[in-house]
Amino acid sequence: MSNFEKRFGKYAIQNISLILILCYVVGYVIDLINADFLMYLTLNPYAILHGQVWRIFTWVIIPPSSLDIFTIIMLLFYYNIGTSLEHTWGTYRYNVYLLSGMLFTVLGSFIWLGIQYFLGSRGIGIYNNSNVASQFFSTYYINMSIFLAFAATFPDVQVLLMFLVPVKVKWLGILYGLVLAYDFLFSGSLVIRIAIASSLLNFLIFFVTSRSHIHMTPKQMKRRVEFRQDIRRNSRVTKHKCAICGQTDDDPTLEFRFCSKCNGNYEYCQQHLFTHTHVK
């Protein structure tokens, strides 16, 4: 991933968790003005293939639940843990994690549509089924993947359950994982299983690729990220150095040449190329 980061890291979106929360705010405003209009923004793969291509992007503004005080608290919580992951992993890696979860969700919706065609669904029936399925292909499970990643990265961080009971976040992560496993195995709904699998695929990839340092403390992971950034900043190796004055090509105005009369690979700047004593 480091090679990709060098090439595409400059395009990473800063504070992407806040942007996701703002998308929800837009969704809540639309819901207050015209709730029925939200149905034209959901991730409906059948509608996308029939010209409503905006749904590929607009589904992220669909709020995960109705607006109440509990939802506001949960959104603030997800913003905090998302920001913590971004600061610890780095903006690029957190972008990849979050956006890949969204991409896998979109792909999962089309996989579900393909299965429906294979089973013989057509016309208005599959359109209605797609509308129902779009309720499950949402950011709900993506938010769950953010929490699971936080629990795996900072297992010993304590949170207040119901604002009263301190509990380590790893136990909540295990509980969430069991709930998701139960829904996947016993829901009896193919669309739920595909939605869970596709939305959480990014977490499975993260868990496998990060198992060597997944239990680092936040300070250790932050130092690791900062160390890698320092290495990248200071990785420029000097290619030219004058054997007399020691000047290097850090000064772009200097030119360097090897002397063909010296016995060995001796390089000189333009000031000493013709004035040095040849090495025999």
Ordered list of secondary-structure elements with their pairings:
Layout: H1 2-8, H2 16-33, H3 45-49, H4 55-58, H5 69-89, H6 91-118, H7 123-133, H8 140-153, E1 158-161, E2 165-168, H9 169-186, H10 190-199, H11 201-209, H12 218-233, E3 256-258, E4 267-269
Helix pairs in contact: 2-5, 5-6, 5-8, 6-10, 6-11, 8-9, 8-11, 9-10
Terminal residue distance: 48 Å
Order of helices and strands: HHHHHHHHEEHHHHEE
What is the 3D shape?
elongated
Number of helices: 12
Assembly of the depicted chains: single chain
Q: Stretches where pLDDT falls below 50 for ≥5 residues?
A: none
Main sheet properties: 2 strands, antiparallel
Given helix and strand content, the structural type is: mainly alpha
Strand count = 4
What radius of gyration results from the CA coordinates? 27 Å
Helix content: 55-70%
Mean pLDDT metric: 81
Strand order, largest beta sheet: 1-2
Beta-strand residue fraction:
5-15%
Summarize the structure.
The protein is mainly α. The chain is 57% helix and 5% strand.
What can you see in these coordinates?
The structure is a single chain. A two-stranded antiparallel sheet has the order 1-2. It has twelve helices and four strands; from the N terminus they run ααααααααββααααββ. Helices cover 57% and strands 5% of the residues. It has helices at 2-8, 16-33, 45-49, 55-58, 69-89, 91-118, 123-133, 140-153, 169-186, 190-199, 201-209, 218-233, and strands spanning 158-161, 165-168, 256-258, 267-269. Helix 5 (69-89) packs across helix 8, helix 6 packs across helix 11 (201-209) and helix 9 packs antiparallel against helix 10. A hairpin with a 3-residue loop joins strand 1 and strand 2. With 280 residues, the protein is mostly helical.
